[in-house]
């Protein structure tokens, strides 16, 4: 093979290599756009669920060992704030806030869930996609930032699912699903 053919093939390989690097590096940005969009829909759906339950039923619990409807929402708010500050944000530390522990009225709970979703949304928007595979110490063993994001989604979905059952047990039709 002549040097010019080798040089041409080498140049083509370099172009393909750099194009693939650009494609791969952009995947993190695309992934975060999807997570942020999904988190926005999660927030809107959860707020819809919180708004449809009458204030008089925020103390409803289907069994004595279950959290009340209001406690479920407070727990969701506490968890997303904890995960955001403890694992997604480099410059903030989680402070155990009493608003997550004390009994709040339904208006305060709805305000808390909105502010917690917005806070964690801002954390998602600030993530450097180069850190998605960065490992963090977690009580269940080391987890990547990406895994923490998945956990945040799963946890909110789990508890919102419980809230949907609470609504159904009260004869209330949940709002239309909007999880995408």
SSE topology string? HHHEEH
Q: Estimate the helix proportion, in percent.
A: 55-70%
Query: Helical region count?
Result: 4
Query: Distance N terminus to C terminus?
Result: 54 Å
Stretches where pLDDT is under 50 for at least 5 consecutive residues are: 13-26
- The secondary-structure class comes to mainly alpha
Q: Give the percentage of residues in beta strands.
A: under 5%
Oligomer: single chain
Characterise this structure.
The chain has 180 residues and is mainly α. The protein is built from four helices and two strands; from the N terminus they run αααββα. The protein has a two-stranded antiparallel sheet. A hairpin with a 6-residue loop joins β1 (135-136) and β2. α1 (3-52) packs antiparallel against α3 (106-126). The chain starts with a helix and ends in an 11-residue tail after the last helix.
Short summary:
This protein has about 180 residues and is mainly α. It has helices spanning about 5-50, 70-90, 105-125, 145-170; strands at about 135, 145.
Brief descriptors of the model:
2 strands; 4 helices; mainly alpha; 180 residues; two-stranded antiparallel sheet; 2% strand
Set down the secondary structure blueprint.
Layout: H1 3-52, H2 69-88, H3 106-126, E1 135-136, E2 143-144, H4 145-169
Antiparallel strand pairs: 1-2
């Amino acid at each position: 093979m002549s040097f010019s053919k080798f040089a041409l093939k080498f140049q083509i390989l370099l172009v393909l290599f750099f194009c693939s690097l650009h494609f791969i590096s952009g995947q993190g940005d695309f992934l975060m756009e999807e997570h942020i969009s999904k988190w926005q829909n999660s927030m809107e759906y959860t707020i819809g669920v919180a708004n449809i339950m009458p204030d008089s039923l925020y103390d409803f619990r289907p069994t004595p060992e279950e959290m009340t409807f209001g406690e479920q929402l407070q727990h969701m708010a506490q968890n997303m704030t904890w995960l955001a500050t403890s694992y997604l944000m480099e410059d903030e530390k989680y402070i155990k806030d009493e608003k997550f522990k004390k009994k709040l009225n339904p208006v305060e709970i709805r305000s808390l869930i909105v502010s917690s979703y917005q806070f964690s949304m801002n954390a998602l928007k600030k993530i450097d996609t180069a850190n998605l595979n960065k490992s963090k110490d977690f009580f269940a063993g080391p987890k990547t930032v990406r895994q923490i994001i998945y956990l945040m989604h799963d946890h909110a979905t789990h508890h919102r699912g419980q809230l949907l059952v609470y609504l159904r047990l009260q004869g209330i039709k949940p709002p239309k699903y909007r999880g995408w």
